[in-house]
Structures are given as C-alpha cells and as structure tokens.
Amino acid sequence: MKTNKQKYKDTFASLTCIEPIKVEEKTMKKQHKISLAFAMSALVLVLSGGTICYANDVGGIRTIVTSWFEGKQTQIEAVDDGDLGYNFYKENEDEPFMGGGGVAFENGKEVKLSAEDVLEANARYVDKKEDGTIMVYDHDLALDITDYIKDGQAKLIVSREGEDIYWNIEVDDNSVSVETNPNKPLDADQYVRVQ
C-alpha cells in the first residue's frame, strides 16, 4: 500500500499550469513592490490550493469513515476499488479487512453506494473468533452467542433500540452464514431471545 506522501505525489505529479507564468521587472519601485506582493500572494494561493485539494480528497486518495465495527465506533479508511466497491482498512494496517460495494437506483439510474452506506449495510454480522467464540455484532451491540449454537445452528432474536431482528445463523469449521430479518418469520417460535 502506498504511503500518503506517495499518493500525494502521484496525484499532483500530472498538474501543469494552463499558461506560462511571466515575470517582468519594472523600474518603478512602487510597481515592483506591488508585483512582488502579487507574486507572493499568487504563490501562497497556489500552495494553499494544493493543500486544500489534498485535505478534501479531491484526488480520491482516501476517505476516512466512522462506522460500527465489533460493537464500537471506529474510523476506517475506505479506498475505492475502481469498480462499484471499496476496500476497507483498519488503522495502521496494510491489508484490507473487508471489501464491499453496491448500487442504488435514483431516477432510474444506477448510483454507486457511498463508503458510509456500504459499511452501514454491513453493521450487522456474525464473527467466529480464532478461539472458537461466536460473536453477533449489531451496531453498538456485541453479544457472545457461542452457547446458543447447537449442531452448527442458532435462531436468535436480538433487540436493539426497541426493534427485534431475527437472526438465522449457521456455523461450520470454515464459514459462517447469516440471514437477518426485521419481520417476524413463520417459524418465530423456534427463535431464542438473547441480550
């Protein structure tokens, strides 16, 4: 992964002036001072303009998004993958921990989802830890559901902010499969409420 300095250089390396800058020396002192002041002001504007472009991420260098991750609000770096998605990086990590994307339809046209929307859509998930612990994450909730898994399956009701979400979870040695539903399913009597 490139450093910010390298990304900055790559982004601004192709910038060129539209017209050549002409510097003329005038013999009148008053005009010379005004020209020098004008040149210094122009230089300050050009340099600050580059800094503003970098700070506002005009070149697509990076986007920092605050989102829910493992039950805590976390700042995550989102890097556009050049297609319809993003790669997401934790602070001080070179490898993405997640990728995702999608589109919405506005006035009949496909519009790429923002990084914030992609992370919000993934704020509910199940994670199997290296020690075998199974965790449910739903925004600010972090629940250990290991004891609820029977024969690799669990049907749970998780309540957050007064809303019940029905979780149908399947776990095996290599993967986790999750379905969430805000509507009461036909087999709701098979679900167990957890908190």
Strand content: 35-45%
Report the mean per-residue pLDDT as an integer: 77
Radius of gyration: 26 Å
Could you state the order of secondary-structure elements as H and E?
Answer: HHEEEEEEHEEEEEEE
Strand order of the largest sheet: 1-2-3-4
Q: What would you note in describing this structure?
A:
The structure is a single chain. By secondary structure, the chain is an alpha+beta fold. It has three domains: 4-55, no CATH class; 62-122, no CATH class; 126-195, no CATH class. Helices cover 22% and strands 37% of the residues. The strands form four sheets. A four-stranded antiparallel β-sheet has the order 1-2-3-4, with helices on one face. It has a four-stranded mixed β-sheet with strand order 12-11-10-13, with no helix packed on it. Strands 7-8-9 form a three-stranded antiparallel β-sheet, with no helix packed on it. It starts with a helix and ends with a strand. Residues 29-34 and 50-59 have low confidence and may be disordered.
